[in-house]
Every structure is written in structure tokens, then in C-alpha cells.
Amino acid sequence: MANLIFSDENPSAAAAAAAPEATSSGGSIFDMATGAGACDGDTKWGSSLGFMDLLGIHQDVIAPSLFDSFQPPPILPPPPPSTSSEPLLHQQLDAKQLQALPSPASTLPESSEVLNNPATPNSSSFSSSSNEAANDHEPTKAEDDEEEEQDQDKTKKQLKPKKKNQKRQREPRFAFMTKSEVDHLDDGYRWRKYGQKAVKNSPFPRYQSISNLITPLPFHIGPLMFIFSKHCYIIWLKNRSYYRCTSAGCGVKKRVERSSDDPTIVVTTYEGQHKHPYPITPRGSIGINMDPSSSFGPSFVVPQPQYLHQQQQLQPYIYNSSPSLNITSITTSGSSFNASIPDFLQDRRFNTSPTSSSASLLRDNGLLQDIVPTQMRKEAKEQ
DNA sequence: CGGATTTGACCGGCGC
DNA sequence: GCGCCGGTCAAATCCG
């Protein structure tokens, strides 16, 4: 996984991964019709910038705006969710920080309440408006029935009309970043996925004459490659998943996507506040102890090594305790890893062949489904 | 069979 | 007004 991305053999791929997103979530898709962005056959991958240059860009642009402003919370950062992933960042971000976040945060309305103290969506630091907002989206049963009748004439897909001149109130959002191979981190609550969007993520559309296509393609985020007029174009796609808490009356939402800057990072954005007790998970997963009596918000239960052992196929990433992204530590060189990493976490760290890694990444990111039609996938499955 | 997920369609906001 | 995009819905499908 990550070790492939930043492999020494393919430094420009690493640079690509480190390159900051030029625009917000609406990164422009490469213009195939006009050929905009096409280059001549001499262009190499990331040739305009060296590996270290791009690393520098990454640090200059990303780190100061997001990571350098990170202040260690008074209590340990949360989740290592049960995926054995490690938390990178966890705090309520101020508007500036949120804008620095890839995309979930960039859409944060200014009216959002943000507090600079560590908390989770369940923490008391969130505004108490969650009920209202939740009711906006989840009307009462009576209202539902009434509207169902009204909607008889309407198209099935048509949505219920919203009150005019009333901007939808957004819940305060809370984002944190986690190094993980799995997108949906188990935080102990039960979530139902209600939507998924493929978002374009093309900071620097990469292209190259097909005749010069020597270096392996950097399959680390989900490139959709196509060939047009002797040029190989790649559009970077990623999925954004939308989850809703399954508890009745709880309108908490959760948005999960990969970071544009580092696809090994999962950006989880919570919206709203749970209005129910923290569910006790029978799985014994690591959970968040949502003790409402605690004025410090939730505390987090450290996963037991035994449990992590069961999850080792997830290839947990050992995160750097430094607030900034130390992407240089992610190399194919085994010596770059800390010797203190338990054996059971090291077992599978370097067993990724380019082939399996590419495939698994495509699978993990859900990109396969974006690129390959469902029918084709089904056929492949049957074979 | 019930709950969860997938996925195409739809709506509203926003920028041009 | 139009197009793009984020967010949501809900039927179809999957899965235990």
C-alpha cells in the first residue's frame, strides 16, 4: 500500500501523492475534448518538479495550514477505530483549518460552530441544535404519512419541498484524519450508508505520451486512465461515502473520504450530535467511551493487541506522532520503520507486489466500481 | 426475511 | 438561465 506509493523506484508517483490539491473539491476534470493539459511525448511523470521539491510543496502548503496549527489535545486523541488504524488528527477544526482540509471541510459553512477543543460529535461542545436539524431531515411519522400521500402524484425520486427562504441549517461538523486502509472506521456507533459519490480529484491531471509510458502508473488513489490521441490521460477519482446513525431519532451523519493529499489518510467528518447512549458493541472493538458525565468528552479505549492481531490483514499504518505529515518515512526501505513497531504489525508491511497492491487499492477505495461497470464485476466474480 | 449496501436520479446552492 | 457539484432519496440488490 503506502510503501508502494512512495517507492524509490517511482519517486514521481510519490510526488504526485504529495502534491496538494490545486482547487477545492471541485477540482476540474481533465478536458479530453480540447486536449487541455496535454503535453508532448517528452514529458515525464512529474518532471517539472523533483521529488523533494514536491515534498517541499506538500509541507509548505499543507503542513502549515493544517498540521502545524494542530495543538495536541489535553487528552489523547481518539479513535483508533477498530480497524487498527491510527488517528492522525482529531480535534474540532477552526474554519481556516477546515478549509485546508481536502474537501469535506472546505464546504463547511461559515455559520458552523467550531470549537477548538478535542471532542467528538457526542461531546458537549457541540451546539444543541442537533434536534432541530435532525428533524429537518427526519420528519415525524405523521408528517411522513401526510407527505407520502401528497407525493403520490410526484415522481418517485422527487424530494419533499423545503421551506423557501430558509437555508438549511448545518450541524457543526467535526473532522479528523486517520491513517487507514479501510474507509469506514468503526467508531462503535452503528451507521447506515445512504449514499456515495465519486468526486473528481484531479489536482494535476497526469498525462504522458503512450510511447513513454515506462514507469508504472501510480495506482494509489484511483486513477481512471484512458488513451486519447496517443496520449495517456489519467483522471483521479475518489469516493465519498455518506453514513447516517441508525439509532432512531439520531440524525448524526458521517462523511468518509480519502484525503486528496495522502490517499492513505481517511478523512472522517461527523455532523451532528448523538442523542442516544453509546452502544456497547458485542464485537469488543475498540470504542469510544461516550460517558456523558465526562466534561472532557469521550475517552478512548486502546485496542488490545490481541484484537489488532485479528485485523492485521488491514496492514495498519504506523503514524508519525509529529503533527506534520512525515511522508518521507513511507518508503520501501524497511529500515525506515521504527523498530518498536510490534511484530504483528510489521508482518505484512512489505508484502505488496505492484500487482496485488494496485488491485487492492482499487478495491479498497471502491474505485473499481467507478471504473468497471457492475455487470462486468459480476461476471468477473463468477469466473 | 430483514437489514445493509449499491446506485442512478433528483434537488438545491452557487458561480458564471 | 445554465451548468456544475454536494448532498440525499429510494428502488434494487446483496448478504447473513
From TrEMBL:
Compositional bias segments (type: Basic residues): 157-167
| Ranges for region Disordered | 103-175
Q: Which InterPro entries match?
A: WRKY_dom, WRKY_dom_sf, WRKY_plant
Per the record, the major location class is: nucleus
Q: Which PANTHER family match?
A: WRKY TRANSCRIPTION FACTOR 23-RELATED, WRKY TRANSCRIPTION FACTOR PROTEIN 1-RELATED
Localized where?
Nucleus
Name of one Pfam family that matches: WRKY
Q: Which domain of life is it from?
A: Eukaryota
Q: Where is the composition biased (Polar residues)?
A: 104-122
Taxonomic lineage from the root: Eukaryota, Viridiplantae, Streptophyta, Embryophyta, Tracheophyta
Keyword list (alphabetical) reads: DNA-binding, Nucleus, Transcription, Transcription regulation
What protein name is recorded for this chain?
WRKY domain-containing protein
Q: Which residues form the WRKY domain?
A: 180-279
